[in-house]
Design goal:
- The protein is an alpha+beta fold and 295 residues long.
- The protein has two domains: 149 residues, Major capsid protein gp5 fold (2-Layer Sandwich); 97 residues.
- The protein has eight helices and 17 strands.
- The strands form three sheets. Strands 6, 7, 8, 9, 10, 11, 12, 13 and 17 form a nine-stranded mixed beta sheet that branches. Strands 1, 2, 5, 14, 15 and 16 form a six-stranded mixed beta sheet that branches. A two-stranded antiparallel sheet has the order 3-4.
- Strand 15 and strand 16 form a beta hairpin.
- Helix 2 crosses helix 5.
- The mean pLDDT is 86.
């Protein structure tokens, strides 16, 4: 069963861990919505669906022909992401009346883990960093990769509709874009005489909707990609989430906060925030991207 980090936190009795998860989920719309599948072992081998078999009409007595789906076997290994948070014991003792230094330092470390995961979720490339995992941008290829043109172009609502329609088997769970692209979308909506719908999500945050699909933003989507002769291009992603679509993979227990204890070489206490995690795309038609989006 796939659970989001927020739902998994409810099953934990560790108050520190709950606080860490709440911190990273509040900061990331991706982690608010992305479900994670717990796997036993160091990775998962699965069949990624590429195409369904065709069905045809037959007359009585016709010879029936076989049609089989096509799959690609994918092996995805869990990767290690995390870092240590050291708190000086002198400061912890003498300044604890000002604020909880340990909680503050762990919170900052957790935020760094969240930022690294979100960046890798989008832009991860194992040919660049073999210790990481491939992100959505690299996994979305072929017919699922739409373009605004050879040299990019300004976003249009028609092209955004085409992007949504490129995700098959139901509407996308999210439209993921940069803040600049969201501003362009707001301008388009206003000029067409309509406004994007807005509502609060489960975390009390205001979320916009385009055609019923949540519009989310990430600071890790570049507005300076090169397409043809243009170097000011961005990308918009549309995807379904969950088993059979886009899902995270994690070890049992998910995100972990481990107390290392007193350090040998300095007067400090160490806490380690770590996560054995990866990303899985179970079906290529569950995600699409639109490249060459110019301001």
């Amino acid at each position: 069963m796939a659970l989001t980090l927020a739902e998994a936190a409810k099953l934990s009795n560790d108050i520190v861990l709950q606080g860490v998860i709440e911190t990273i989920v509040q900061e990331s719309p991706i982690l608010q919505m992305l479900p994670f599948i717990e796997i036993t072992g160091n990775g998962l081998t699965y069949n990624r669906e590429n195409a369904n078999p065709n069905a045809t009409f037959f007359d009585v007595g016709d010879t029936w022909t076989e049609g089989t789906p096509t799959f690609t076997q994918i092996s995805t290994a869990l990767k290690i992401i995390g870092g240590d948070a050291d708190i000086d014991n002198y400061l912890l003792t003498t300044r604890s009346n000002v604020q909880d230094l340990q909680a503050a330092v762990i919170r900052l470390r957790a935020k760094a883990v969240q930022q690294k995961f979100e960046d890798t979720f989008l832009n991860g490339d194992t040919t660049v960093d073999a210790k990481s995992f491939d992100g959505i941008d690299k996994l979305t290829t072929g017919a699922q990769a739409l373009s605004m043109g050879a040299n990019g172009a300004t976003l249009t609502l028609a092209k955004l509709d085409e992007l949504i329609d490129q995700v098959k088997g139901g509407p996308p769970a999210m439209l993921l874009m940069s803040k600049r692209s969201r501003r362009s979308l707001n301008t388009l909506a206003r000029s067409s005489g309509s406004l994007l719908q807005a509502d609060r999500n489960d975390f009390g945050q205001m979320v916009q909707f385009y055609d019923g699909v949540p519009v989310t933003v990430s600071d890790y989507i570049s507005d300076a990609k090169t397409v043809g002769t243009s170097s000011d291009c961005s990308t918009i992603y549309a995807m379904q989430l969950g088993e059979g679509a886009v899902a995270g993979l994690t070890s049992p227990g998910g995100l972990q906060v481990e107390t290392i204890g007193s350090l040998e070489t300095k007067d400090a206490t160490r806490t380690r925030v770590k996560w054995y995690v990866a990303l899985a795309l179970f079906n290529t038609i569950k995600v699409a991207k639109l490249t060459g989006v110019r301001p």
